Amino acid sequence: MMRMMLVAGARPNFVKIAPLMRAVAGYDDIEAILVHTGQHYDRAMSDAFFNDLEIRQPDINLNVGSASHAVQTAEVMKRFEPVLLEYVPDVVVVVGDVNSTIACALAAAKLGIPVAHVEAGLRSFDRAMPEEINRVLTDHISDFLFTTEPSAQRNLRREGVPPRKVFAVGNVMVDSLLGFLEKASHSDVLSRLRLGNGEAYALLTLHRPASVDDAASLRRLFEAINAISRSIPVLFPAHPRTRAQIEKHAVEVDPGVRLIEPLGYLDFLCLMSKARLVLTDSGGLQEETTVLGVPCLTMRENTERPITITCGTNRLVGSNARNILRHARSILAGRKRNGKIPRLWDGRAAERIVAILYRELSPGIRIDENRQQPALIAGASEFSLPAALLDRSHEIPLQNEIPHHASSL
Ligand code: UD1
């Protein structure tokens, strides 16, 4: 029996853990232990997601709550270490780039427990983002690195991560999206928000420290958002920290911007899928809108998910109000780019991840330390993964990746 410990801490983690829990349930000889760190704890930020995504109750809740970065990260480590010592899992699976991700990866790696990082290799090349630090560190102490897009593989290779540890598997967030889209389409959120049938609206999310913690930057963004709301209603389910910052800095929000409580997964997915335009600073939304074919304006200077621009419907517009407005007007005037769905974003990423971990960590099978190719390919021939789970992304030549910056677009 293989013991797999899966960790989730914050809202976007829950979306990524759900398909992994489902995939693991298909194996009689894998025991899955679900750990919630408690980084997010409000009903709207946590329980609502467990319900909507049909994730069972966590086996362990570390209840860390909010604190400064150092305190939150340290507290997760302190509370996670005894759990690892008690359960001694064969592998710890962490997802994304939040503080819980690095904290649990570090605690496990220090005990010599293999770490699998889902959504590895993404880089914004901006160390001012706490998530960028979490990504780089987690990747470099992980034993299995599961990537969503080719840029991630190139980043890891450039940083010297051995290719045998890297597996191109697709995107678990897309697994959830495709799995729940039909159910989300029955949400009554539109009528609850009193939006008439077919009425056009834009959807806004904003929560990154760089966007909302600085009063001047928040005001600048709202200059553009307020102007957009004079052409189209802007629905704004606000993250608790954003709402607090708006109140603290008395930022002017026009009546066309409808500030509402954070929504659950299904309601939000329903709203996103029918939006004329999405405005965001989130990472996940850039990917979700790409799959839904909904135009997305990312109000940041860089993205760690360049495929959403080169292949999808995302555009980096930075934080300049005039620039944001110009792009929004162009979309509202009907000039919409037709994106494509990136390769392997097909709803089966979690299946691939669990299949690989099962094969690599099953007793009697050892990781080949000398393997030079990304392990999915080598693993596939050695352990006969189903053909449908194969990927050939390693054949993409290594280039000097140029980070996507808003200023260059
Ligand atoms: C975290 C992640 C970010 C992710 C985001 C999704 C890190 C470094 N950041 O940011 O990458 O995109 O989650 O939401 O891990 N709060 C509540 N209720 C909650 C949780 C938080 O009110 O359930 C408030 C608290 O005031 C807290 C603040 O939000 O101090 C920030 O929470 P925190 O978990 O530190 O980071 P996020 O901004 O949510």
Task: Characterize the structure shown.
- The structure is a single chain.
- This protein is an alpha/beta fold and 409 residues long.
- It contains 17 helices and 13 strands.
- Helix 2 (43-52) links the parallel strand 2 (30-36) and strand 3.
- A seven-stranded parallel β-sheet has the order 3-2-1-4-5-6-7, with helices on both faces. Strands 10-9-8-11-12-13 form a six-stranded parallel β-sheet.
- The longest helix is centred in the first third of the chain and has 19 residues, at 69-87.
- Helices cover 43% and strands 13% of the residues.
- The protein has two domains: 2-171 and 345-400, Glycogen Phosphorylase B (Rossmann fold, 3-Layer(aba) Sandwich), CATH 3.40.50.2000; 181-332, 3-Layer(aba) Sandwich (Rossmann fold), CATH 3.40.50.2000.
- The relative contact order is 0.13.
Radius of gyration: 21 Å
Beta content: 5-15%
Number of distinct helices: 17
Strand order of the largest sheet: 3-2-1-4-5-6-7
Q: State the end-to-end distance.
A: 51 Å
CATH superfamily of the largest domain: Glycogen Phosphorylase B
Helix content: 40-55%
Reported for the largest beta sheet, the result is: 7 strands, parallel
Bound molecules: uridine-diphosphate-N-acetylglucosamine
Helix-strand topology string: EHEHEHEHEHEHEHHEHHEHEHEHEHEHHH
| Count of separate structural domains | 2
Poorly predicted regions: 373-388, 390-403
CATH fold description of the largest domain: Rossmann fold
Cα shape: globular
Structural class call reads alpha/beta
CATH architecture of the largest domain: 3-Layer(aba) Sandwich
